[in-house]
């Protein structure tokens, strides 16, 4: 494994995709997580331009589906909650700017959210698991149903609401500076696994950090570690319906 310090700008720019693998939990950040992140960003916006804030680590592994041509995909083994939340925040800033500064909104799309010339799912710089995918794509594409009741939609609505309040502050919050804080002054340690590393074992070993894995999370990891070509089908038609019907304790008891 290779570790290096980077920023969100360094991660998102270029023809790359960050794919959240099937054994990961759904997006799970709640309001208090979002508020803490927003407070950290505001403190940096008011601080000296050289001040940075360490956000945490991001563990990545090259996708086995990569080919020499096309978008290069990386599996997000750890850090998907932070990466997803920052991407949701960029969506919220883009939409806040859309009417007053459409050029700035389009630039956020092109630099951080989309692979402009790719097609299909490769179009999206971040691609969550199937459980969160529809909600995330609706945000990126700015469809009428964007910002639903799930946690992805709730996070988006939280950031839209706090951004709306900044219009009434004196002086108004400089969103260009906020964007630069998000993409350039949040320090991230990128840990890249080798192609032959066992990413499932790495995922299990990270259970002691962040929001602890539930037994259902570990069961999902154990199952999809043993599935290869059938993983997408089993996840969509068997695991995901169970996950939507049952809470973690019920799912664990059933298994």
Can you describe this structure?
It is a single chain. This protein has two domains: 2-208, no CATH class; 214-255, no CATH class. It is an alpha/beta fold and 255 residues long. The two termini are 34 Å apart. The chain is built from eleven helices and six strands. Helices cover 51% and strands 14% of the residues. The longest helix has 18 residues, at 80-97. It has a six-stranded mixed sheet, with helices on both faces. α2 (31-46) packs across α7 (175-184) and α9 packs across α11 (248-254).
Number of domains: 2
Structural class: alpha/beta
Beta content comes to: 5-15%
The count of DSSP E runs of length 2 or more, i.e. the number of strands, is 6
Count of alpha/pi helices: 11
Q: Quick one: biggest sheet? A: 6 strands, mixed
Numbering strands along the chain, what is their spatial order in the largest sheet? 1-6-3-4-2-5
Q: N-to-C SSE series?
A: EHEHEEHHEHHHEHHHH
Q: Estimate percent helicity.
A: 40-55%
The residue-averaged pLDDT reads 87
Quaternary status:
single chain
Q: If you compute it from the alpha carbons, what radius of gyration comes out, rounded to the nearest whole angstrom? A: 18 Å
Low-confidence stretches: none
The N- to C-terminal Cα distance equals 34 Å
User: Given the C-alpha coordinates, what overall shape results?
Assistant: globular
Pfam families: GmrSD_N (PF03235)
Protein name: GmrSD restriction endonucleases N-terminal domain-containing protein
């Amino acid at each position: 494994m290779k570790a290096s310090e980077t920023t969100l700008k360094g991660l998102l720019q270029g023809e790359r995709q960050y794919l959240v693998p099937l054994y990961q939990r759904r997006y799970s950040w709640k309001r208090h997580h979002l508020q803490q992140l927003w407070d950290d960003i505001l403190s940096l916006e008011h601080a000296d331009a050289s001040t940075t804030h360490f956000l945490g680590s991001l563990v990545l592994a090259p996708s086995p589906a990569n080919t020499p041509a096309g978008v290069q995909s990386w599996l997000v083994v750890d850090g998907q909650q932070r990466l997803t939340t920052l991407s949701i925040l960029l969506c919220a800033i883009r939409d806040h700017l859309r009417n007053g500064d459409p050029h700035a909104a389009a630039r956020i799309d092109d630099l951080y959210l989309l692979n402009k010339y790719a097609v299909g799912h490769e179009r999206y710089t971040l691609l969550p698991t199937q459980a969160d995918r529809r909600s995330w794509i609706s945000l990126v594409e700015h469809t009428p149903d964007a910002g639903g009741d799930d946690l992805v939609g709730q996070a988006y609505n939280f950031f839209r609401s706090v951004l709306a309040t900044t219009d009434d502050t004196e002086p108004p919050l400089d969103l260009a500076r906020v964007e630069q804080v998000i993409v350039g002054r949040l320090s991230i340690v990128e840990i890249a696994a080798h192609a032959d590393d066992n990413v499932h074992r790495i995922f299990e070993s990270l259970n002691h950090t962040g929001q602890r894995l539930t037994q259902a999370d570990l069961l999902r990891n154990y199952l999809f570690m043993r599935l290869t070509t059938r993983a997408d089908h089993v996840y969509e038609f068997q695991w995901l319906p169970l996950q939507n019907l049952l809470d973690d304790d019920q799912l664990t008891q059933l298994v």
